[in-house]
Amino acid sequence: MRETTLEYAKKLDENDALNSYRGEFYMQPGTIYMDGNSLGLLSKRAEQSLLTTLDSWKKYGIDGWTQGEHPWFYFSEALSKMCAPLVGASEEEVIITGSTTTNLHQLIASFYHPKGKRTKILADELNFPSDLYAIRSQLALYGYEATDHMKLVESRDGHTLDEADIIQAMTDDVALIVLPGVLYRSGQILNMKVLTEAAHEKGILICFDLCHSIGSVQHELDEWGVDFAFWCNYKHLNGGPGSTGGIYVNHQHLGQNPGLAGWFGSDKEKQFDLAAQMTPAPDAGAYQIGTPNILSAAPLFGSLEMFEEAGIDAIRDKSLKLTDYMMYLIEEELCDYSFTIANPREEERRGGHVFLVHEEAARICKALKEHHVIPDFRSPNGIRLAPVALYNTFEDVWNTVQILKEIMKEGTYKRFENKRDVIA
Ligand SMILES: Cc1ncc(COP(=O)(O)O)c(C=O)c1O
Ligand SMILES: Nc1ccccc1C(=O)C[C@H](N)C(=O)O
């Protein structure tokens, strides 16, 4: 039987197989960090791999490209090998490069080939807006108006998407589909396998934004036959602010010329021939453009090592327990305060965070911060709380709900304006 006591939370922590990892992260004393789905915390291993990289620069100068622990010329490829298991791909299909948005631009530029009647890109109205901006601007390069070339699947409840609605929108005028793996607000996991099968039955290519799913839930992109994917590494993968992102290209599509070419997409053996004609790499490396941002990728060596060691299955298992426990406490303790849990409940449909809806959400988040609990607010009325498997405890979850209860009971949130800050 679950209990609402602190002792029960402590007991859950004692039985947590991952509890040794918390000590590897920099946590501010007295602060409960519930925002690892926006920016993951720094670990000592990530810090060390960044320092090691700086050391190579100190010691080797230009020769750091070929010398040191992780020679920079092969940096992206070495990281891709570590990251590939997290998306269920082979190392040739993954490249650590760019940012989420630039990677989507690259994928559309490379694989969206409108032909005849098939000219539309299908997306959804709940996706992170940057994706929609990128799609719109890529369509504009063809002279297409988004109003008639971008199809957006609508949500029935404002928070989640129904796979049946998405499948129904897969009509024969759609060339490419771009969807999130996990929705950034409600944390809903889309059934990527079922959507991929449906897309392929209709002859449509499908691409997923894994920003909120990578490092949080398992992926089997190869097994599901997904065509392309892209993501950032600064959320659940703790790569640091602006950390280099990732691209997945299914092996069936490798060998096609990059839409946005640059010399770092070259075959490594040929790159320094400096020929006027590019020879693209045979693998996903071809979708790189310019010189990799070495210092923004360096923390990933330390961070990904922790994922290799802990294993995504154990991480997902604990994440589910944390969010389950959080929802239980919210229902038991906050039932008088008009919160709605707007994330899906089922394990197959629930990502790594809890999404609470409340009319006063903006100022409740400000009050939480004042009490040293870090959530994020998503306009107009959402609070995201992400208890992260590698560094949050069940006691953190218990304390978060108790603090939230106190804020609601005392009404201390009323001292703030119900309006978001510049960065919410
Ligand atoms: C789902 C999703 N897509 C795209 C982005 C944009 O990523 P970036 O700023 O790294 O391009 C974000 C977050 O910023 C996101 O959560
Ligand atoms: N890149 C950022 C820079 C500043 C502040 C937030 C972000 C985020 O990543 C937000 C995230 N995409 C979200 O799911 O809302």
Automatic annotation (TrEMBL):
Alphabetical keyword list: Hydrolase, Pyridine nucleotide biosynthesis, Pyridoxal phosphate
Keyword S-adenosyl-L-methionine: no
E.C. numbers: 3.7.1.3
Residues bearing the modification N6-(pyridoxal phosphate)lysine: K235
Record's catalysed reaction(s): L-kynurenine + H2O = anthranilate + L-alanine + H(+); 3-hydroxy-L-kynurenine + H2O = 3-hydroxyanthranilate + L-alanine + H(+)
Family: Belongs to the kynureninase family.
Biological processes per GO annotation: anthranilate metabolic process; L-kynurenine catabolic process; L-tryptophan catabolic process to kynurenine; NAD+ biosynthetic process; quinolinate biosynthetic process
Recorded metabolic or biological pathway in which this protein acts: Amino-acid degradation; L-kynurenine degradation; L-alanine and anthranilate from L-kynurenine: step 1/1; Cofactor biosynthesis; NAD(+) biosynthesis; quinolinate from L-kynurenine: step 2/3
Binding site for pyridoxal 5'-phosphate: T100, T101, F128, P129, S130, D131, D209, H212, Y234, W263, T291
InterPro entries recorded: Kynureninase, PyrdxlP-dep_Trfase, PyrdxlP-dep_Trfase_major, PyrdxlP-dep_Trfase_small
Gene Ontology MF terms: kynureninase activity; pyridoxal phosphate binding
Role played: Catalyzes the cleavage of L-kynurenine (L-Kyn) and L-3-hydroxykynurenine (L-3OHKyn) into anthranilic acid (AA) and 3-hydroxyanthranilic acid (3-OHAA), respectively.
Summary of subunit composition and partner proteins: Homodimer.
Keyword Hydrolase: yes
Cofactor(s) essential for the protein: pyridoxal 5'-phosphate
EC class name: hydrolase
Alphabetical list of Gene3D superfamilies matching this protein: Aspartate Aminotransferase, domain 1 (3.90.1150.10), Type I PLP-dependent aspartate aminotransferase-like (Major domain) (3.40.640.10)
Protein name: Kynureninase
GO cellular component: cytoplasm
Organism domain of life: Bacteria
Species name: Psychrobacillus glaciei
